[in-house]
Design a protein that fits this description.
With 387 residues, this protein is α/β, with parallel strands linked by helices. It has 2 domains: 167 residues, Rossmann fold (3-Layer(aba) Sandwich); 205 residues, Dehydroquinate synthase-like - alpha domain (Dehydroquinate synthase-like, alpha domain, Up-down Bundle). Strands 1-8-5-4-2-3 form a 6-stranded parallel sheet, sandwiched between helices. The chain is globular. It starts with 10 loop residues before the first strand and ends with a helix. The relative contact order is 0.11. Bound molecules: 5,6-dihydroxy-NADP (NZQ) and zinc ion.
């Protein structure tokens, strides 16, 4: 196992009716801004309930954070925050709203340059307003991590940033809040979670038995429970297990002390930025293609994955690996997430744009693959296979 440091400061309030504790989690003298997305939190009545819980607080609200939140929109909120001397941010929504709020928290305190430097120049964020979240869609895991991904329209790119100061102070995870989400968003979340686990698991072995077994148990939970949610969407037990699996998949625990490879995400973000495909859907098409193209680099872990996750015992090593990739694709398709980008009307003409948008990453010293071996030529192969 590699050396690691692990600290996760986010308090989780998990289960039904945890919103009732909201007023105990925010400092009494705070000036709060409730931030939400387009319309779902209003329609479901959640926004009214949040306001009820904050009736004794000085609060304001700001709606309209779009899916794949943009720098340009978020800067409007930053202006509002500064003008109204807001000092606590409350995100009510899915990954996009929460990521957006993390950026607003950081940009409102940023003094080392202009806020776009946080993304484009990756200037470290050392200060941020405190924030809390009420999650309405599980999958991204942003409710318990120090990361956010923001689209910069002027650059045509989707750029992650991370900092210890943007972890939520608390996150309220009530699985019943996800009931109103469309099933295709639930499916996106399950495939996204699956990919988060694979990006930290499917590299090379470092004798990290706890992390491996933990990752495998999360994968098996998704495979066994995921498809059931399509038939019984308001089954609390299912939703609770899927929600907690998503949070545990990307809160630092399974990724501590092991090599990681976030290439599916980096390529997926480039596709979302240029072609506006949902994040989870890009994962469904890119992950199996990476498994295929990188099967030599990932050989030992692919075999472990085949045996322990899919219980494949028969056949040659090649056949076991091939079957595990097939099973992965089959699972995504059962979840209703296509493994082909052509299902969204994309064709080979996207390849040059995606490759071009990945070139600046090389300038920032970001390499793809756990050993940096996924060159842009190999990314081209990945894209060809995913179409
Ligand atoms: O805007 P509203 O009206 O809220 O509607 C949203 C949106 O249209 C709707 N929705 C959410 N909860 C709902 C609901 N509709 C009905 N009932 C509910 N309970 O669903 C749509 C999609 O929401 P969005 O927040 O965009 O989805 P998701 O949670 O999948 O978040 C995706 C974003 O997270 C980023 C992605 O890149 C993408 O921008 N990610 C963030 C990560 C992180 N910070 O660690 C990691 C992930 O890999 C990912 O990159
Ligand atoms: Zn993701």
């Amino acid at each position: 196992m590699e050396n690691f440091e692990f600290q996760n400061p986010t308090k989780i309030l998990f289960g039904k009716n945890q919103l009732e504790k909201l007023n105990q989690e925010i400092p009494k003298n705070a000036k709060v801004l409730i931030i939400y997305g387009s319309s779902s939190a209003e329609k479901s009545g959640l926004l009214d309930n949040v306001k009820k819980q904050l009736s004794e607080f000085d609060y304001d609200e700001y709606g309209g954070i779009e899916p794949n939140p943009t720098y340009e929109k978020l800067m409007e909120v930053v202006l509002f925050v500064k003008k109204n001397q807001i000092n606590f941010l409350l995100a009510v929504g899915g990954g996009s709203v929460i990521d957006g709020v993390k950026f607003i928290a950081a940009a409102s305190c940023f003094e080392e340059g202009i806020p776009s430097d946080i993304l484009i120049k990756q200037i470290p964020v050392t200060k941020a307003l405190p924030l809390g979240t009420v999650l309405t869609l599980s999958g991204t895991g942003t409710e318990m991590n120090g990361e956010a991904v923001i689209s910069v329209k002027s650059e045509g790119s989707k750029i992650p940033f991370r900092s210890p100061v943007i972890y939520p102070k608390f996150s309220i995870l009530d699985p019943t809040y996800t009931y109103s989400a469309p099933l295709n968003q639930i499916s996106n979340g399950i495939v996204d979670t699956f990919t988060h686990i694979m990006e930290q698991y499917l590299t090379y072995p470092v004798d990290a038995y706890v992390q491996d077994r933990f990752a495998e148990s999360l994968l098996v939970t998704l495979i066994e429970e995921g498809p059931k949610v399509l038939h019984t969407p308001t089954d609390y037990t299912l939703r609770a297990n899927l929600m907690w699996a998503s949070t545990m998949a990307i809160n630092g625990i399974i990724g501590s002390g092991v090599p990681q490879d976030w290439s599916t995400h980096i390529i997926g973000h480039a596709i979302t930025a240029s072609h506006n495909i949902d994040h989870g859907k890009t994962m469904g098409a890119i992950l199996p293609a990476i498994m295929e193209v990188q099967k030599e680099e990932k050989r030992e872990k692919l075999l472990q994955y085949a045996k322990r996750v899919w219980k494949i015992e028969k056949g040659s090593e090649e056949e076991m690996i091939a079957l595990s990739i097939f099973k992965t694709k089959e699972f995504f398709e059962i979840m209703g997430v296509s493994t082909k980008l052509s299902s969204y009307g994309l064709d080979h003409t996207i390849i040059p744009t995606v490759i071009q948008s990945l070139e600046p990453l090389t300038d920032l010293g970001i390499t793809l693959g756990e050993r940096g071996s996924l060159t842009l030529d190999k990314v081209t192969q990945v894209l060809e296979l995913s179409l």
